Predict the 3D structure of the following.
Amino acid sequence: MSGQASVMSLLEVRDLELHYPVKSSGWLGAARSVQAVRGVSFDLAAGETLGVVGESGCGKSSIAKSLVLLNKPQHGRIRFQGKDILRLNRAERKAYRRSVQMVFQDPYGSLNPKLTVGASIAEGIEVHGLYADRSEIRKAVVELLDRVGLPEAMIDRYPSEFSGGQRQRIGIARALAVRPELIVCDEPVSALDVSVQAQIVNLLQTLQQDSGLSYLFITHDLAVVEHLSRRIIVMYLGRIVEEGLAQDVVGQPKHPYTKALVAAVPGGSHRGSPSEGVLQGDVPSPLDPPSGCAFHQRCPLAEDRCRTLDPLLKDVEDSRRVACHLVE
């Protein structure tokens, strides 16, 4: 289970807390902070895809940035291959950055518009000294372009000359260039047309089958994450509310929030009532999260205890965790 150590885990995250300071409205105002991630724990096995799903502001991207060392958590532990990534020395940190790469939501913003496609892909190869000879580097770049479905003729063109789907393929090639073991995909298809989304998801699956890659796949689209992931984590306001095998979470959701997400998927496999797919109200502000269960203000089944007692994320069956007072 994700809450327990596993000898098979490539990545272990324990009790992760991440807060962002927020400027006060006046010079006498009290200092405040956004509670982006609150006590999150999970494991990711080698060769596995773990999906992380939830609405905007639930903490998904904050976790992603912590994993690639762009954010420093206030509390918790992140272990990769048994090593605490927050305690790495300079050489170990460089090796870790090679092992864990990221594919971003905005395929254009993640590429330097002044660099050709070939130069962008070659950057990581050069930084990590994978090849010394320029001809070897170019050959590797051409092979990477081929792996992501792009012709060699594109190697000397610039990002502005490509479509969104092509740019995302270039971003994936950049991530692959340093031969990583884990790729953190932060909403990698949300900015793309539906038909292009399917192409990118299929590409990621093919690359995983060929290379044994692991993915942490972050999205707000449950249909996409169901197709790609073996396991799914559902997050709400900085916390995990449900975790389990993809077919179980989507086929038989247990948390009321997960039920709403599943019922809202067009043509979804869940046969819930139409009302389950309509979330009332907005996500509460992480500056001032509600007491008790963070979801109680939007939950049609909320009881008095939900308003005062924060439910623990607990095992409810094999490979399944849920944080809800109504699920025993």
User: Anything to note?
Assistant: The mean pLDDT is 89.
